[in-house]
Design a protein that fits this description.
about 400 residues, mainly alpha, Growth Hormone, Chain: A, about 85% helix
């Protein structure tokens, strides 16, 4: 069994790599679609926002399906769908086609990649959930680092349409292989698996302030998680960067987030989710505030590096924090619901950023809004009770 659980971690890493790497690369296609079709950034942001909404809706369903049927079946279906969605994206000619793909095939892949992988890994590692969640999310960071530059090269060499086909096929193969590595730990003899997991029921969790605070916190930081990666490359190009140099901004986010994921993952196990959350929000708020007036390329890279650390940490801290407050009995359903609230904010953020640019010709107003949300989120995190105090209530 020890060897099996590390194979599961590898499968989870590959899933994160494939799904998020391709999602990050979509920002590089915004300029291509603008040039080819004349579509606005509000429209192009809206399509990805729809995918994020579907990610939230399907995270609730995916969490429950994972609790019941296991990760292999769920991720096989959604991984195939995700790759197919990007292949079909290469053939679009109308805006409605873009929205259909993000609302269906691409949305399916987004909806399960996080809740299924992190909930499964949390089942395998009872005492090291934080650091192992961080390790899994390193897969996300590597996808953020490596896929956008690859996408930029493919666009330059083959054009945007062929690039999408190549990326879609590659993602499909990787995600199906990763799904085969995923499984739940063996059920203890004489149990149904679910009853053997200790913790709070989903119905009871919904009655607690901690649950709704975590939902609100997720809602407040997700706009920055979705808007900055989508718009930062085109923002860099607006400031005079080449497409290749702007793609490096995404790689910097990915590289810095590796440090954030591993650091915060280890901190969760040592100091708890609340303190780790606080650190992430403080760094996020500072980095977003810096982006408001930054136009120099070097300063932009530094600010994005700090953002990347917080980005990686925030995506790592949520699952083990949910487990620490509520246990594993209904972890998939609880975590999936928390993610759903995050994706509502994540859907709003990119659209408002695109709208801010279309109306003002600048992203400054958008960065100001993201900073305000992050500061409010920091206040809510500080209001969370200790796990010991929450346990007396739950």
């Amino acid at each position: 069994m020890p060897q099996s659980r590390y194979i599961v971690v590898l499968g989870a890493c590959l899933t994160q790599f494939g799904v998020i790497g391709l999602l990050f690369s979509y920002g590089l296609f915004i300029k291509e679609f603008e040039t080819a079709f004349g579509w606005s950034r509000t429209l192009l942001s809206g399509s990805s926002a729809l995918g994020v909404v579907m990610m939230g809706i399907l995270a609730i369903i995916g969490g429950r399906l994972n609790d019941r049927f296991g990760p292999r079946r769920v991720l096989s279906v959604t991984g195939f769908s995700y790759g197919l969605g990007f292949i079909f994206l290469s053939q679009i000619t109308q805006p409605w086609q873009l929205f259909v793909l993000f609302g269906t095939l691409i949305g399916l892949g987004l909806g399960t990649h996080d809740v299924v992988t992190l909930s499964t890994v949390a089942r395998w590692f009872e005492h090291r959930r934080g650091i192992m969640s961080g390790v899994v999310k390193v897969g996300t960071a590597l996808g953020q680092m490596l896929t956008p530059p690859l996408a930029a090269i493919l666009i330059a060499v083959y054009g945007w349409s062929t690039a999408l086909v190549i990326l879609g096929i590659g993602a499909m193969v990787m995600l199906l292989a990763a799904a085969m590595m995923m499984k739940h730990p063996p059920k203890p003899a004489g149990t149904d698996g679910v009853s053997a997991q200790s913790g709070t029921s989903f119905a009871r969790a919904r009655e607690t302030r901690v649950f709704w605070t975590l939902c609100a916190v997720q809602f407040l930081f997700f706009p920055a998680m979705m808007a900055v990666p989508l718009h930062i490359a085109v923002h860099g190009m607006d400031l005079g960067m080449t497409g290749a140099k702007a793609a490096v901004l995404l790689s910097v986010i990915g590289g810095a987030s590796i440090l954030g994921r591993l650091t915060v993952g280890g901190l969760v196990d040592k100091i708890g989710g609340k303190k780790a959350f606080t650190l992430c929000f403080a760094i996020l708020s500072a980095s977003l505030f810096t982006l408001i007036g930054t136009t120099a390329h070097t300063a932009l890279f530094i600010a994005i590096g700090c953002y990347g650390f917080a980005h990686g940490g925030l995506f790592t801290v949520v699952s083990p924090t949910v487990a620490s407050y509520f246990g594993m009995r209904a972890h998939g359903a609880i975590f999936g619901t928390v993610l759903f609230f995050g994706t509502i904010g994540g859907a709003i953020g990119p659209v408002l950023m695109g709208l801010a640019f279309d109306q003002t010709g600048s992203y400054q107003l958008g960065f100001q809004g993201l900073t305000l949300l992050a500061v409010i989120g920091l206040g809510l995190v500080l209001s969370l009770p200790s796990v010991e105090r929450a346990a007396r209530v739950v």
